[in-house]
Amino acid sequence: MFCHLRPVRRLCLEKIFPPWFRNSSRALSGAEAVNALRPFYFAVHPDFFGQHPREREVNENSLKRLSVYLENLQKPGFKSLKPTQLTFYVRETEQNSSEGQEPFSTSGFRAVKFTLHTRDLLSTVLYILNSCSLSVEHIQSLNNNVHSQPLKEAKRMSDRPIKWDKSYYYFTGFRDPHEDLEQVSRMETTLTSWLDNNGKSAVKKLKNSLPLRKELDRLKDDLSHQLQLSDIRWQRSWGIAHRCSQLHSLGRLVQQNLEILKNAKGCTIIFTDRSGMSAVGHVMLGTMDVHHHWTKLFERLPSYFDLQRRLMLLEDQISYLLGGIQVVYIEELQPVLTLEEYYSLLDVFYNRLLKNRIPFHPRSLRGLQMILNSDRYAPSLHELGHFNIPTLCDPANLQWFILTKAQQARDNMKRKEELKVIENELIQASTKKFSLEKFYKEPSVSSKQMVDCCKRLLEQSLPYLQGMHLCISHFYSVMQDGDLCIPWNWKDGEAIK
């Protein structure tokens, strides 16, 4: 059987990788890989999915995971990486609009799924481009150009992305990403002009959604009361109708297995992509799972609560070894982890600390915070004041870094608290001035960005906002239920033609 499989595998590789790749022995640098992937980044960049929040979020998450994968490939001494499955929504461009491939949707994009299990940057780049039906000819050009450089000149070259001459795009037929981005910038509208063009549409959608919004509130209140829940939330920006459907589904399960679902008393339920318990102890209900999976999860909650207690004890033990610094998990800034995944992360870090005791003075770091990160190899200090500590960090370097940055961390945390107070005051002032029904922001918008946005909003006269739901985001959009999304750094004045 194996003698038949091997030729098939070789044939598949020959289809994916062009002949010059099999004869090439040169490895790509990190900057060259980024440059070679420009057509891909242009086809999947989240900024071009402003009207499609779900697809935008999928691409954002997949790009983060891809970035980690590419970074790990470049780390010295790595042996192999775990297979990484990624999903991207790919926009239609001149490069991928050829016949004989999966058709694009009416919205101009299609879903592409692939699994990375490569061992070098060049094969990774080629695999990604081929999976998205994008040309790889420019990589051969890059490969040949570098081979033609004298060795000394190659050593002097700066490791930065190449900006191709206009003639390259003219003769190859590829689209110039710089020119397209400049065109997007020229077409960028101002806040007032965008509201003039979209205000009436948003009002109509909001009015049509009001009955469903009331139904959603009723369902949420009923289920929260029945199960004595702390809250019910959604990880994604699903529409009101979709959320009502999910609550109806949970309501039917309550009627069938009320006693089992009462195990969730005091918990927060989150509708998300997979079922389980989150790192912070929320009950995650996968929206693609059937009732059987949900029921099994609720049955297992007592064992999850036991694991949660062990996890909290582990956090306390780590804190004790590190001078009283608090171990926290920040949902907005960290990858979505299950309770089991987070416990495993803490356990690895704790065992490393036990083997390499760091002489911190007891309680000398009280009031400071840290998060564990499996994707980094060097510690860092976040602008919000918490330390980003790699699980595999060298203990000696960790001690030096924390001690030298401790005062700066305290200053950052103080500024964060002050900024949060200002942010809340400005949100209240904006809500009152514009008579907003709801005013909120996406988790990815920082307090500093929100403060800047609100200060500028309060200088404006915006009658279209009265009674509306306004979300501060990174793009303009009218959501399907009438919520207005505007970028935090919106432009004022006349639109640039």
Give an account of the 3D structure.
- The protein is of the alpha/beta class and 497 residues long.
- Helix content is 51%, strand content 12%.
- The chain is built from 17 helices and 14 strands.
- The strands form four sheets. The chain has a four-stranded mixed sheet with strand order 3-4-6-5, covered by helices on one side. Strands 7-8-10-9 form a four-stranded mixed sheet. The protein has a four-stranded mixed sheet with strand order 11-12-14-13.
- Helix 14 (291-321) packs parallel to helix 15 (339-355) and helix 16 (395-433) packs parallel to helix 17 (447-457).
- The longest helix has 39 residues, at 395-433.
- The chain is globular.
- The termini are far apart.
Strand count, sense and barrel status of the largest sheet are: 4 strands, mixed
Taking pLDDT < 50 over at least 5 consecutive residues as the criterion, the unreliable ranges are 1-17, 20-25, 96-106, 145-161, 169-173
Placed side by side, the strands forming the largest sheet appear as 3-4-6-5
Number of strands: 14
Report mean pLDDT, rounded to a whole number: 81
By DSSP (H or I, 4+ residues per run), the number of helices equals 17
Helical proportion, percent range: 40-55%
Q: Report the portion of residues in β strands.
A: 5-15%
| Shape summary | globular
For the termini, the CA-CA separation is: 65 Å
Content-based structural category = alpha/beta
Q: Compute the CA-based radius of gyration.
A: 26 Å
